[in-house]
Specification:
The structure is a single chain. With 275 residues, this protein is mostly beta strands. The protein contains two helices and 16 strands. The chain has one domain: Sandwich (Jelly Rolls), CATH 2.60.120. The strands form three sheets. Strands 4, 6, 7, 9, 12, 13, 14 and 16 form an eight-stranded antiparallel sheet that branches. It is globular, with a radius of gyration of 18 Å.
């Protein structure tokens, strides 16, 4: 459920405004006052219905701010009722610190269908992570939780210069902003580890575009013969990963998630507009 409410007075956003994960002050445009709020529903338990709701700020560009920099309302671990303790809210950022607690992917537990989602990310040296969209919580034939990546496309997040995955795959399709193991980001314009990058993913009726640092780097269309062929020629093929092949061909809404890959990563300014 999504409901917008317009207020007569401005609501100050708690974006990455003044504190920016140890960085410099953000430009005034990033801290523009919000003009509205939106109510989003979310699930608090794995496989559960979206029974809880919360009010989120809407920025001046019309994006719902789904991480306010101070708490994790609407977020929980994949297959969990709690936020894994290895994910920390620090300096207005969502910060994964390896070895600091429970390791798990973190999800914003609202199902989106057509959307424009944006966020900023940076990684430590040699780090690997990912952004999942249209995710689902699924069980395998034995009744155990499936790996998240089998149900969702992945926007790759990587230190291209220092992580070996950058040289694997085909034509750089495991480098940052790529559709992981399927389509390479072109141009490859990521910034080095320790510097902020801006990511954007637009999904509209199966048509998808990835952006990195303000440039469109790839586009594709799901659920077409070309999509099926691409999956068959990847690690997600019907023989090696039948669950992924089935779920990636299933039309469904889904949640957003950031991947725990065991490396230190930061995220901020996480916001979405429904299309």
């Amino acid at each position: 459920m999504i409901k917008s409410v317009i207020f007569g007075t401005s609501l100050a956003l708690v974006l990455a405004g003044v504190a920016s994960c140890g960085g410099k002050k953000q430009a005034a445009a990033e801290t523009a006052p919000a003009e509205a709020t939106a109510e989003l529903s979310f699930s608090t338990v794995p496989f559960g219905e979206e029974t809880d709701t919360a009010v989120f700020a809407v920025d001046s560009a019309g994006y719902i701010v789904i991480f306010n920099g101070t708490d994790t309302t609407g977020w929980r671990g994949y297959g969990r009722e709690n936020v894994p303790t290895s994910w920390h809210v620090e300096d207005s950022c969502l910060h994964f610190v390896p070895g600091s607690g429970e390791d798990a992917d973190i999800i914003f537990a609202h199902n989106f269908t057509n959307f424009d989602v944006q966020f900023d990310w940076k990684v430590s040296e040699g780090a690997n992570s990912g952004f999942f969209y249209m995710g689902q919580e699924n069980k395998n034939d034995e009744g155990n939780l499936e790996w998240l990546f089998v149900s969702t496309p992945e926007y790759q997040i990587l230190d291209n210069a220092n992580h070996p995955d950058a040289k694997l795959g085909v034509d750089g399709n495991r480098q940052s902003a790529s559709l992981y193991d399927l389509i390479p980001a072109n141009p490859q314009n990521s910034k080095p580890f320790g510097e902020w990058n801006t990511a954007r993913v637009v999904v509209n009726n199966g048509k998808v575009a990835h952006y990195q640092n303000g440039e469109k780097v790839l586009e594709y269309e799901m659920w077409t013969p070309e999509w099926v062929e691409m999956l068959q020629n990847s690690k997600f093929n019907e023989k090696e990963l039948p669950a992924a092949f089935r779920l990636l061909n299933d039309k469904h809404p889904g949640f957003f998630a950031f991947q725990n890959h065991g490396d230190e990563v930061w995220f901020k300014n996480i916001r979405v507009k429904n299309l």
